[in-house]
Amino acid sequence: MKYLPLIAATLWRRPVETILTFLAVTAGFMLFASMMGLNVTYRRAVESVPDNRLLVVARFPGPSGGLPIGMEERLRRVPGVAALTAEMVDWARATGFRVVAAGKGTKYLPVYHDVTPAGVWGHYGLTADEAQSAGMNPQMFNSFLDGTKSAIEMAAIANATGLDVPTGGLLFPPCGVDDLPHVMRPREAGGVLEKSGVVEVVSSLERDGRPVFRDLRWGVYVVLEAPNDYAADCFRQYGLKTDASGRYAAMYKPYHLIGLELNISILSAALRGEPTGQPQGFRGDVASVAKRDLRAGEMLDGEGGYTVWGKLMPAAASLAAGALPIGLAHKVKLKNDVAHGAVVKWSDVEIDAGNDTVKTRRAMETAFSK
To answer: 130-151, pLDDT tens digit by residue?
Structure first.
């Protein structure tokens, strides 16, 4: 207590600084208390949201708080891969490079085409109970695994960029990021591609199930070809990984954040009037393929289900075959038996010709068949 007069005298030697310090400390405590109150309010608001609602927190929040849980699958299917890859293709072309291949990475083995929702969780390292407790949809996640999602994304990229679709469908070659220029080049140059200028997905697994070194499971890529010796010299001088010839190099993004990056496309379209990928033609289509021997009278259950998976095909080949698009293979009954691995055709199913979506698709087929 004997030091209080000394402390008071010291404080009032500079009264302005003392008052300002006191006000700053008071403001700090008030701000802290306000934020604590806001945090409690926010947590209570979240806890009050019904279980059948999905709360979405945007970087640019609007007046609404939650979306129906039924929107979850649509949000997960936002074509972030297509937009990111289309942007990389635009960058490569604007820079003056030839685009040899573009696409993404994923976890793939040939047996995945026949996986059903009943067996999907083992491939994700989860039990059915763990997945259910997390609210994960087995059919949606199975569409990621069985090749359907990859096919849809590559069709979108091909249609947006003018790149071609592999004649026999996606190869899913095992490939890490360091080997992209070596593996993802035309066969005539020593790679796996039938030609230059195609979409393709690389696998994070070797065919025997071993992990690929430095895989691109979560990312996207573009493989470039140097248009001249100067560009090839730049590849070497700037430290790019190239093939043995030095003329093929790759650029990649190791991660893509699906719907979290949606605002980039929205703002680009709204503020600059510039899409981050839109169809320029009909080059790629995704056909329904039987996961097992299917019998007449069975009901197809669409993407990621028990009956069909989506295979990428050149649009011209799909139209010529009369292939049923995977997006319309939902709740339609088979009229004919379809063998395991065969493409399901329009003629194999009972279809509602009066459905607006069916009419739109049929009109598109007519337009592009000319």
So the answer is: 999 999 999 999 999 999 999 9
